[in-house]
Amino acid sequence: DGGITQSPKYLFRKEGQNVTLSCEQNLNHDAMYWYRQDPGQGLRLIYYSQIVNDFQKGDIAEGYSVSREKKESFPLTVTSAQKNPTAFYLCASNGGNYEQYFGPGTRLTVT
Amino acid sequence: AQTVTQSQPEMSVQEAETVTLSCTYDTSENNYYLFWYKQPPSRQMILVIRQEAYKQQNATENRFSVNFQKAAKSFSLKISDSQLGDTAMYFCAFMKPRGGSEKLVFGKGTKLTVNP
């Protein structure tokens, strides 16, 4: 089945540690995205990538980093510089038909 | 920059009745796309319906339909014959075509509860 996988579903970290969230897609989509969702908020764009080895900052990129070494993979690192990292993180891809397909999300809790 | 506003944080409806969720947006673009996404308690984002701005005809998908008023920059979602499974957060979203790296701009969502 084609789709987007994110792992793990729940992630716990101590403050001050970097953590990497996984996003893999087998839809052969070029563009991939990372969004953050907080209670009472819509989704906000962190980073996006149109092609391999290229990515751009979204609206709330501070404290995050990404890489795009393979078309299928777009991992997100939440660094210790992110002041409020506890949130729900969603990965998405776009196959060129102006529709974004979302993964199941990762709930990150930092204490 | 584009903005999307959903003025109803929460709504409720009785099963089998009809409910309309509101969405307004602000843009100077003429060509764009609008979407409604559903996020049930599982938190999986599911595309409900999309509308191309250049199409005057309102989009429909089974029990879901939109009322797209381009001049008023309004894009409401009507759910007919509401079902318990329609209980979810609903997000309105705007997208401007950019040749492959289109970004979605989301509203803050409306929490819909369908009561038995």
Describe this structure in words.
The complex is a heterodimer of chains A (111) and B (116). Chain A is built from no helices and eleven strands. Chain A has strands spanning 4-7, 10-13, 19-25, 31-37, 43-49, 56-57, 64-66, 76-78, 87-94, 100-102, 106-110. Chain A is globular. Chain A starts with a strand and ends with a strand. By secondary structure, chain B is mostly beta strands. The N and C termini of chain B lie far apart (41 Å).
Largest sheet of chain B: 6 strands, mixed
Number of helices of chain B: 0
Helix content of chain A: under 10%
| Helix/sheet category of chain B | mainly beta
How is this structure best summarized?
The complex is a heterodimer of chains A (111) and B (116). Chain A is an all-beta fold and 111 residues long.
Give the helix/strand layout.
The complex is a heterodimer of chains A (111) and B (116).
Chain A: E1 4-7, E2 10-13, E3 19-25, E4 31-37, E5 43-49, E6 56-57, E7 64-66, E8 76-78, E9 87-94, E10 100-102, E11 106-110
Parallel strand pairs in A: 2-11
Antiparallel strand pairs in A: 1-3, 3-8, 4-5, 4-9, 5-6, 7-8, 9-10, 9-11
Chain B: E1 3-5, E2 10-14, E3 19-21, E4 24-26, E5 33-39, E6 46-52, E7 60-61, E8 64-69, E9 74-79, E10 88-95, E11 104-106, E12 110-115
Parallel strand pairs in B: 2-12
Antiparallel strand pairs in B: 1-4, 3-9, 5-6, 5-10, 7-8, 8-9, 10-11, 10-12
Task: Describe the structure using short key phrases.
heterodimer; A: mainly beta; four-stranded antiparallel β-sheet; about 0% helix; globular; B: about 120 residues; mainly beta
